[in-house]
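Query structure, 136 tokens:
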């Protein structure tokens, strides 16, 4: 099931993990809206993880980086982990140049590795949904 975030970004729920991707550069207003939407959904849906794919993000500024750190802190306080995946080298270099370490933010090379970090593997169904699928 998906629902558009306040930032116009779809957020999918896969078992007990929310998955979203940044499709383009985020302005400050969109970053705040996405952070608020994800935090609300973590609380209301009691998910244990959030995967944010930033592979399409070519640039990042200090505001968006701080929004990711705040989202991670909020999610952790609500019992969920956040993994940011797909960071481009230019984005990593920019973060280093800005002196931003994304403290507390877990990263993964790609979405598959991010989902693995959150307890998923290929062909794995979450425990709560495992009984819902018909046998093959």
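Result returned for the query:
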């Amino acid at each position: 099931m998906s629902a558009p975030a306040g930032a116009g970004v779809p957020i999918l729920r896969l078992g007990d993990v929310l998955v979203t991707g940044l499709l383009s550069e985020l302005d400050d207003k969109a970053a705040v809206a996405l952070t608020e939407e994800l935090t609300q959904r973590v609380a209301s849906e009691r998910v244990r993880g959030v995967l944010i794919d930033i592979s399409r993000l070519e640039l990042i500024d200090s505001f968006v980086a701080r929004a990711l750190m705040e989202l991670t802190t909020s999610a952790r306080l609500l019992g969920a982990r956040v993994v940011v995946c797909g960071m481009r080298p230019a984005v990593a270099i920019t973060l280093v140049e800005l002196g931003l370490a994304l403290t507390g933010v877990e990263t993964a090379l790609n979405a598959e590795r991010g989902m693995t970090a959150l307890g998923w593997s290929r062909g794995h169904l979450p425990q709560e949904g495992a009984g819902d699928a018909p046998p093959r």
